Amino acid sequence: MPDARRLRDLLIGRILATGPLTIADYMADCLLHPSLGYYSTRDPFGTGGDFITAPEISQMFGEMLGLCLAQVWIDQGRPKLFSLVELGPGRGTLMADVLRATRAVPGFVTAARVHLVEASETLRQIQADTLFGHDVTWHGTVNDLPDLPTFLLANEFLDALPVRQHVRDGNTWRERLVTETEGALSFALGPAMPMPELNYHNVPAPLPDGTLVERCPALPGIVGTVASRVARGGTAIFVDYGHWRSRGDTLQALRNHTPEDPLAHPGQADLTAHVDFEAIARATPASLCSVSAMISQGVILERLGITARAQALAQSMGGARLNAHVAAHRRLTHPSDMGDLFKAMALVPVGAALPPGFDQ
Ligand code: SAH
Question: Global pTM?
C-alpha cells in the first residue's frame, strides 16, 4: 500500500477511536511519524526535492550569518568555549558554510562546539556526511543543549513546528480540527470554548467573528530554553517566513514544488505554517534576553554585506554559473522573491549589543 494511504488509514483509525485531531497532531504525524513521516523518510531539499531553502540557494546566506555570529563573538570578548548550534539543519549546508566562512576569524572555530538539533535520522546521516571532519553532537530537542554561551541559527525550523488553529466566535474560540468524512480526511470546527491565552489578539480592537489565528504550542518552550542558553552569552538568530502576529490560515502543503491540499497526501508533502514573530518575542523572558525588531531577510542580508560578497564571488565566474549566481542573489534578497516574505529576529543576553545588522 502506498505510504500516504497507510498514514491516512492510520490517522482515520485514530480519529474513529479517539475523536478528531488538532491540526498540530496531524502536522506532527505527517512530518515526523517514525516510519511514514515526511522528514523521517526522505531528503526533501534541492531541485530534486520539494523545496529549496536559502542555504541551498547560495553559500552567501551561511557566510553572512556566520560572520554575523563571529562579530557578536568578538564583541562579547571572544568566549573561549561556546556552543555553535543549529536547529533543524536540513542537509547541514548552512552549518558547513558558517564553519568555512568563520575560519577567517582567528579563534572562533577552535572555541566552537557544534551542536545540531535534528529529529530525523535520515537527515542526521546527511548532515554527518556534509560536516565530515567536524566534531558534531546531535540532540533530539533544545533541552539537551549544554549550558554554555550559545551562538545559534535556525533557518526554516520554526515553520515546521505544528500549529493549532482557532476561529473566533463571539467571546469564545472554536478549534479547527481534522476529522473523517465518508472515509476521507476533512476539516471541521470543534465546540466553542473560552481561550484566555488568545485574548491578546483582541487588543487594541476585538477581532471580527470568523477570524482564524494560529499558535504554535511548542514555540514558547523552545524559545524559552534557547533564551536560557543565550543568557550565558551569545545570540540566537531565527530566520523564517512569517509576519508579526498570526492572522488567517497559513497551513500549506508542498509536494514536488507544487502547493496542494494539506489533507491530500499525509506524510508525502511538506507541511508548514507561517511563523508568528510576535510569539517569539512574547516567549522570550525579558529577564534573560533582549529581542531585536523583526527585519526582512532582504534587508538583513544587505546590511550584512551580501552585495559586496556577491560581487567578489562574481569576479571568478562567467556564463551560466554567473547567471545562476546573480539569480541566487536576487532570489535571497529581492522583495518579490524571498526578501520580504522571510524575516529575521535576534535574541541577545540582556544588556548585550544586538548583532550587526539587527542594531539599526
Ligand atoms: N534549516 C534547513 C532545513 C529546514 S527544514 C535549511 O534551511 O535548509 C526543517 C528542518 O527541521 C529539518 O531538518 C527537519 O528534520 C527538522 N525538524 C522539523 N521538526 C523538528 C523537530 N520538532 N525537532 C527537531 N528537528 C525538526
Answer: 0.95
